[in-house]
Automatic annotation (TrEMBL):
GO terms for molecular function: nucleic acid binding. Gene3D superfamilies: 3.30.160.20. Residues 179-224 form the G-patch domain. SMART domains: G_patch. This is G-patch domain-containing protein.
Length: 227
């Protein structure tokens, strides 16, 4: 006498087997295991590659941007944050592509505008950080870097805002008024030949310097008096 045994999983039919009452159950279970193994292997293959995408800005599909114009925007000591900020700063797209290598080891590729920048292999928890760190190092070798308020560690080849302002003021004082300057031409038409202003040359010799205002300083602020 033949028996048919069906295997149901969560109320859904999965497999069946035929035989005696004793063997039909074993045959059905064996068939169910084969089907589950086949299904799970397909799911694992689908999940083996994962992509994390960070867009610089929501925009319509446009022509691919060239990385030669990229500026690294370093606003954090975290390399992942640096890459994400750089992508937003340049209105580009950065992607982190994960591929399972073996067991618990994953490969992470850093893609910027669909170009491979760097990759690393390790456990999934840390491999993204390692790959991002390597990508930042590679980009900083060839691209200009904007550093914003980094207070930890020492940074080489960085010019502060105060240094830039100081240099610009010094360079402005060194510059001489050229003959094609409108003010120079007007004064010469009025008889000025150089030196100080006035009938006897007793006036000022240099142009009035422009005082730069920073932050919330008001006009006429006297720093020494505190008023």
């Amino acid at each position: 006498r033949l028996w048919r045994c069906g295997v149901y999983l969560q109320g859904h039919f999965l497999a069946e087997g035929c035989g005696t009452k004793k063997t039909s159950k074993h045959a059905a279970a064996d068939e169910a295991v084969k089907i589950l193994q086949k299904t799970q292997s397909n799911v694992s293959a689908t999940k083996a590659v994962q992509v994390q995408k960070v867009s610089g800005a929501a925009r319509a599909p446009a022509k691919k941007k060239s990385l030669k114009d990229l500026v690294v925007y370093e606003n954090s000591m975290n390399p992942v944050c640096t890459l994400n900020d750089t992508a937003q700063f340049n209105k580009m797209t950065v992607e982190y592509v994960f591929e399972r290598v073996t067991g618990m080891r994953w490969k992470c590729k850093v893609m910027l505008e669909n170009e491979l920048i760097a990759e690393a292999v390790g456990v999934k928890k840390t491999v993204k950080h390692v790959a991002a760190e390597e990508a930042v190092k590679i980009l900083k070798k060839t691209q200009p870097t904007v550093v914003n308020n980094l207070k930890k560690g020492t940074i080489e080849d960085v010019i502060s805002r105060n240094e830039i302002c100081g240099r610009s003021a010094e360079e402005a004082l060194k510059q001489q008024i050229k003959e094609d300057n409108i003010g120079n031409q007007i004064l010469r038409k009025m008889g000025w030949t150089g030196g100080g202003l006035g009938k006897s040359g007793e006036g000022i010799r240099e142009p009035i310097a422009v005082k730069e205002q920073f932050k919330r300083e008001g006009l006429g602020l006297d720093v020494e008096r505190g008023s």
